[in-house]
């Protein structure tokens, strides 16, 4: 793969003959406690600033960093600080006013339609990054009896919105297949990445671990991420309860469904990546029972820390976790997780730790972001394809509220 610097040459906006392109990332998935999408956009912003002349603007309902643009939105109760962009025309007007050369939409709701409107008005390419599996979210919202109906409706909506974009980015191969099966074309697999300098085994700190006040022989499991229903945190809590002493679960995050139990320690969301890396690297095993992950950024960060991972063998996690880096659990039963965790501790975890780190290094942002930049440049050279978004729309009442979170 070409180096980040070599990829800067001979492309629109990276020479004296052309002004630098302006990329606008529009997303609703941004709050004080948001994780994966926020770190993706922050990593992209920093990398573009260091390695290219591109201008990059993040547009979100919550603007808590310099140079961000705040989008009109309403507060979304019970979402952990997220806001919902609703007014399509106002959103499109705001995005147009930024005068972008390329727009990337980070969610498939009203903001996606507004991004398409703005791209159409400016005759520029529009990209969508698929961070959520709407079919699985819909099924979990309505329950088993109506799951099939909900999934079919979600699939129709996915096809309707994404078919207008010039390119759709799927963070995993399995998510790419889901989109293709739904009838979406122009899909490519564009994995997320990790800062392997920040998330590094050297962050491990015995002093930090001692501050928890736990016995030295404690087998400390850690989960970091949103406390959301699809993360199945109750499975982890029940698994550690089954295991008993000396196992403990440290859960770091925010959201409506935190785990609980006498062997569970809950800590608030950590905004500082360096402190988060110290925590993860200082624990024995990272655990994740989610079965709807489109990628699994927190799992990748744990692997970069050299922390073995026990995760559900489902969706995007299957492409990151296998028994060589920890354990891939075939089902979501607490006893299955308990067995996988205890079995991992029967053997030397040095091998899984080294292999986890090696696998994460292949996903370093300096590998993933040049590939993404190449895709952007191809779109800019080719220009947008004709699109008509006027007939397609969605209102906040069309989809269940959980899909907006």
UniProtKB/TrEMBL annotation:
Protein name per UniProt: Glycosyltransferase family 1 protein
GO MF entry, a single one: glycosyltransferase activity
Residue span, Glycosyltransferase subfamily 4-like N-terminal domain: 35-197
Biased composition (Polar residues): 392-405
Keywords from the named record: Transferase
Region (Disordered): 383-405
Lineage of producing organism: Bacteria, Pseudomonadati, Pseudomonadota, Betaproteobacteria, Burkholderiales
UniProt superkingdom: Bacteria
PANTHER family with a match to the protein in the record: SULFOQUINOVOSYL TRANSFERASE SQD2
């Amino acid at each position: 793969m070409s180096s980040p610097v070599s990829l800067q040459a001979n492309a629109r906006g990276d020479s004296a003959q052309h002004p630098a392109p302006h990329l606008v990332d529009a997303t609703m998935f941004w709050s004080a406690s948001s994780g994966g999408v926020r770190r993706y956009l922050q990593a992209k912003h920093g990398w573009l600033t260091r390695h290219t002349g591109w201008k990059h603007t993040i547009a979100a309902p919550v603007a808590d960093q310099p140079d961000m643009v705040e989008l009109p939105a309403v507060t979304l109760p019970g979402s952990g600080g997220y806001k919902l962009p609703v007014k399509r025309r106002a959103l499109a007007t705001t995005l147009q006013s930024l005068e972008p050369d390329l727009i990337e939409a980070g969610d498939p709701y009203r903001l996606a339609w507004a991004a398409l409107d703005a791209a159409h008005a400016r005759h520029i390419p529009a990209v969508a990054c698929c961070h959520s599996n709407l079919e699985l979210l819909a099924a979990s919202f309505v329950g088993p009896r109506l799951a099939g109906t909900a999934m079919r409706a979600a699939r129709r909506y996915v096809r309707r919105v994404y078919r207008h974009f010039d390119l759709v980015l799927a963070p995993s191969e399995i998510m790419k297949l889901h989109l293709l099966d739904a009838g979406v074309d122009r899909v490519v697999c564009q994995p997320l990445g990790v800062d392997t300098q920040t998330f590094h085994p050297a962050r491990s700190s015995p002093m930090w671990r001692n501050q928890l006040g736990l016995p030295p022989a404690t087998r400390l499991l850690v989960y970091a991420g949103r406390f959301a229903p699809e993360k199945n945190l109750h499975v982890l809590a029940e698994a550690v309860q089954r295991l008993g002493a000396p196992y403990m679960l440290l859960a770091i995050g925010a959201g409506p469904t935190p785990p609980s139990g006498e062997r569970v320690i809950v800590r608030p969301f950590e905004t500082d990546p360096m402190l988060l890396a110290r925590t993860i690297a200082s624990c024995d095993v990272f655990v994740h029972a989610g079965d709807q992950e489109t990628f699994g950024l927190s799992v990748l960060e744990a692997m970069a820390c050299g922390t073995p991972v026990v995760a559900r063998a489902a969706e995007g996690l299957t492409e990151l976790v296998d028994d060589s880096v920890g354990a891939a659990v075939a089902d979501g039963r607490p006893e299955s997780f308990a067995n996988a965790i205890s079995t991992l501790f029967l053997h030397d975890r040095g091998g899984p730790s080294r292999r986890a780190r090696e696998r994460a290094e292949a996903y370093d942002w300096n590998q993933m972001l040049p590939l993404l930049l190449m895709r952007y440049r191809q779109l800019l050279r080719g220009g947008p394809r004709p699109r008509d978004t006027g007939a397609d729309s969605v209102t906040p009442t069309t989809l269940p509220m959980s899909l907006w979170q």
